[in-house]
Design goal:
Shape: globular
Strand order of the largest sheet: 1-2
Oligomer: single chain
Strand content: under 5%
Distance between the termini: 17 Å
Radius of gyration: 19 Å
Structural class: mainly alpha
Order of helices and strands: HHHHHEHHHHEHHHH
Length: 325
């Protein structure tokens, strides 16, 4: 077990070093897309933990991302907290909201839980329009400040966003990997496989579900704060219902039971708009085709993944082997 953790730490360190090198050798668009990938990695990790391990289905994580984003920007604008602390506030606020929701969710299963979280995704972001301090439809500016001067004059704002988002994604993935490999992860897998047997084995089903929902909500809150940072704005329109479906799609594309699949799913989600843009231009570039093609391709990939790779791609990493048991 210790060797596995050491090997995982080395892998994460190597990934971080490669990202550091790559960020200095690509254009601004790729750097910004890299930040988007990091945001999706954190968000998809939340779904993997909740659905892939504890077996709870959520279609409302976009709303939990909004909770984290608004908590982060309010703590920045009103309390002038440093950026790292605004992320902590985002995690805690979303986790607290998720804990309350998790108490109710612990009594629901399957489509009932999915429907409840879906209603949350529809209604919660629009509440910002009812409270003036949340900025209404115009939203609130999320200013993380300029990059430190010691990084050099050529270090751009997008690179700063990428570094913050990538570091957060690496830390969260590492922490989530360790949580899923602990007794909590084993309890959640038992709960997902057979709740009755898990209860007979001494696992407190309700408490385990609430804990999974709370941690997953905290991860979603961090993803929301990172997303707000990359677009420098928090508005209800930044967290539409489609965002919740997009996160779930990314998790399913690479295997909802595989934490390592969050990276693959995130890359696919960021690549789809660019691929469909090129395809739409090749097909004539009509406005209707350009608007609908990304959703069509995402839906097609989701269906194909469910049909042919329901457990995700075969990965050689140890985590993939444990998840398939």
């Amino acid at each position: 077990m210790r060797n596995s953790k050491v090997r995982a730490a080395l892998i994460f360190s190597a990934i971080g070093f490669v990202l550091f090198l790559v960020s200095n050798r690509v254009d601004e668009l790729r750097v910004y897309q890299g930040a988007e990938v990091a945001v999706y990695v954190v968000a998809i990790s939340a779904i993997v933990l909740l659905t892939g391990y504890s077996g709870q289905i959520s279609l409302g994580h976009g709303a939990l991302m909004a909770v984290g984003a608004y908590a982060g920007v309010l703590s920045r604008n009103y309390w002038n907290l440093p950026i790292p602390l605004t992320f902590v506030v985002a995690v805690l606020a979303a986790a607290l909201f998720g804990a309350v929701l998790g108490v109710a969710a612990g009594r629901l299963t399957g489509p009932y839980l999915a429907g409840t979280t879906l209603a949350l995704a529809v209604g919660l972001p629009s509440l910002a329009n009812e409270f003036g301090f949340l900025g209404g439809e115009q939203g609130l500016t999320y200013d993380v400040g300029l990059p430190p001067t010691w990084l050099g004059a050529d270090f751009t704002q997008y690179k700063w966003f990428f570094w913050i988002a990538a570091l957060a994604a690496l830390i969260i993935t590492w922490l989530t990997y360790n949580i899923l490999g602990s007794r909590f992860g084993r309890s959640w897998r038992a709960l997902r496989s057979n709740p009755t047997s898990a209860a007979l084995a001494g696992i407190h089903v309700g408490r385990s579900k609430v804990l999974a929902f709370t941690i997953s909500s905290g991860l979603a809150g961090l993803a929301g704060a990172l997303l707000a940072m990359t677009i420098s704005l928090v508005t209800p329109s930044a967290f539409p219902l489609s965002l919740s479906f997009t996160i779930v799609t990314g998790a399913v594309l690479a295997g909802v039971t595989l934490l390592t699949g969050s990276i693959v799913g995130a890359i696919v989600l960021v690549a789809i708009p660019e691929l469909t843009g090129s395809l739409a231009a090749h097909l004539g570039g009509s406005e209707k085709v350009t608007a609908n093609l990304p959703g069509l391709m995402t839906s097609a990939l989701l269906i194909l993944s469910v049909l042919f790779f329901p457990n995700g791609p075969k990965l050689n990493w140890r985590e993939g082997k444990k998840s398939s048991r």
